[in-house]
Amino acid sequence: MTTQSTGPSRPTAPGSEGKGLAAGTLGLWGSVVIGLASTAPVYSLVATLGFVVLAVGAQAPIAFIIAFIPMLFIAFAYRELNRAVPDCGTTFTWGTKAFGPFVGWMGGWGVAVAGMVVLANLAQVGGQYVWLLVGDGSLASNVPLVTATGVAFIALMTWVSYRGVELGERVQNILLAVQYFALALFAVIAFIKVGTGDAPNPTPVSLDWFNPFALTDYSGFIEAVLLALFIYWGWDTCLALNEETRDPKRIPGRAALVTTVILLVTYVSVTVAAMSYAGLGTDGTGLANEDNANDVFLALKDLILGPWAWILVVAVLVSAVSSTQTTILPTARGTLSMAAYKALPKRFAQVHPTFQTPSFSTLVMGIVAIAYYVGMTFISENILADSILSLGLAIAFYYGITGFACVWYFRRDLFHSARDFFFKGLFPLLGGLMLSYAFIQSCIDMWDVDYGYTVIFGIGGTFVIGVGALALGVVLMLVWWAFPRSKPFFRGESLNRDTEVLVPDSPDAYGRSVDGGLA
User: Fold this and answer.
1) Which of 178, 338, 438, 454 could form a disulfide with 344 if both were Cys (CB 3.0 to 4.6 A apart)?
2) Nearest one of 189, 201, 16, 97 to 499, comparing CA atoms
């Protein structure tokens, strides 16, 4: 099989105008907003800050910084691959072009699994925080009410995603502004109270907080970094919307890098503010108090914001709901791309003629997320909690594939220049290796029956759920492989290294060969 240059893609063949998505809708700012919203910055801090402090104490800021490094390296891989292959299938498309159909299919499945699991988590958080605002907050413990509210949020955000990226961008501008206003208010007032001596345990900022060599518990540090990886996840939504961006080869990659840097500054700043205000004590409002680990903000909101404490509750709610919408976007576009290249039934490639969104894929994503959320809640809230704890496996899995795919796809270009060596080779390789380690270490940790909330088959339920979800992808892939319609994909005919980036958007053209593209 001949190979093409790994430089810019060839012009689209006549009659092939893409998958039918709304090209040219997003600019750099819109892409950054959606990337930030996808990470749910307020909720991510709520979910991880307390546990990171429990793991490493005063070294929490450096843990967030070190966790940023593999994210930055993988962001470089996304940028370089997107410049050469700006396809909304991202990991699926790039993995297939680099390593073949089986690796590519599993990469696409990893994206889908991560999206499905986190949607259930976000819906539950959104449902709980709505009812924390009502009365004395006791309704937040009403499981049927919280579940129904979470389902309503998924349905609403599915509708917003169905209606188009432009509507979604306008919604996200507002929701993200609320989140950053709340975080800024929290940090500024915390620092002011530290300065005036009104903090419960004012603690001067120390350089040791940023010193990795001050660590005394290596295993705790690894645990903290693995936890911190979760809070950066989601920026790759910028890349999944590349075909709807004004400059699809440049803007998505730039947006991803800008997003990751903004997140780093946000997380470290808020962490330092919380540590300075509350200290690291194991009782009261101390950040090392295990009773506060599940939600540090809830423990501190009344002391810091007083009568305005409800703003933080609203911010967490908004963060969860906002990320619900942006999480649907990459998964729906991933399955659209997979169907366009015959890696899934062609119905998934359906695009709404007016809204120019992956209509069928979006609806399926919403329905599956609701079914998963309700099903897991009905079976056991502990199983739902363990499925959320296992999320890091899917994230490390498909990010790792992307890093390695970048190195292999550009392997002939790596010594053309210093830039190619570092950004197409060394950095993506290091990112892939780091995330592979994170995956393996997480599997080892999750095997322990004490890791999560359940025990299945005599081992940690988190391990069974996380690895089982990825293994289910192998089963589904083999099921689709058995269908005659899948043969062009698994034979490497509908998507390979030489395939054009864009595919016909007309249902009548589905499957028609276009300049060596679809067979």
Assistant:
1) 338
2) 97
DSSP state of 421: I
Distance CA 31, CA 379 (A): 38
pLDDT digits (tens, 9 = 90+) for 16-36: 456 778 788 889 999 999 999
Q: What is the pLDDT of residue 18?
A: 66
What is the rounded distance in angstroms from the CA atom of residue 30 to the CA atom of residue 36?
10
- Among the residues of 85-217, which ranges form H helices? 91-99, 101-132, 143-163, 165-196
At what angle are helices 381-389 and 461-481 packed, to 10 degrees?
Answer: 80
Nearest residue to 304 (alpha-carbon basis) of 186, 203, 202: 186
Spatial separation of the C-alpha atoms in residues 68 and 50, rounded to whole Å: 18
Rounded Cα gap, residues 74 and 414, in angstroms? 16
CB 360 within 8 A of CB 350: yes
List the structure tokens of 55.
């793991």
All residues at 6 or more sequence positions from 112 whose CB lies less than 8 Å from its CB, including other chains = 331, 334, 335
**Confidence check: pLDDT of 476 > 90:** yes
Within 10 A of 60 (CB to CB), how many other CB atoms are there?
28
Q: Which two tokens stand for residue 445?
A: 């940790």
Q: What is the reported pLDDT for 514?
A: 31
Q: What is the rounded CA–CA span in Å between residue 304 and residue 451?
A: 33
Token couple for 516: 């060596």
Characterize 300-336 residue by residue with b for buried, 16 or more Cβ atoms within 10 angstroms of its Cβ, and e for exposed.
bbebbbeeeeeebbbbbbbbbbbbbbbbbbbbbbbbb
Beta bridge partners of 460: 455
Give per-residue burial for 439-472: e unless 16+ CB within 10 Å, then b. bebbbebbeeeebbebbbeeebbbbbbbbebbee
7 versus 445: the higher-pLDDT residue is 445
Work out the pLDDT band at 376, boundaries 50, 70, 90.
Answer: confident
Please tell me the distance from the alpha carbon of residue 28 to that of residue 19, in angstroms, as a whole number: 22
Residue 156 makes CB contacts below 8 A (sequence gap 6+) with 321
DSSP per-residue string spanning 354-395: TT-S-HHHHHHHHHHHHHHHHHHHHH-HHHHHHHHHTHHHHH
Joined together, the tokens standing for residue 46 give 């709520």
> Token digits for 340?
């366009």
CB-facing half-sphere around the CA of 275: CA atoms within 13 A: 25
Look up residue 90 and give its amino acid. T
Nearest CA among 88, 92, 99, 89 for reference residue 411: 99
pLDDT digits (tens, 9 = 90+) for 333-348: 999 999 999 999 999 9
Q: How far apart are the first and last CA of the chain?
A: 15
Please list, in sequence order, all residues whose beta carbon lies within 8 angstroms of the beta carbon of residue 430, skipping any fewer than 6 positions away.
70, 73, 403
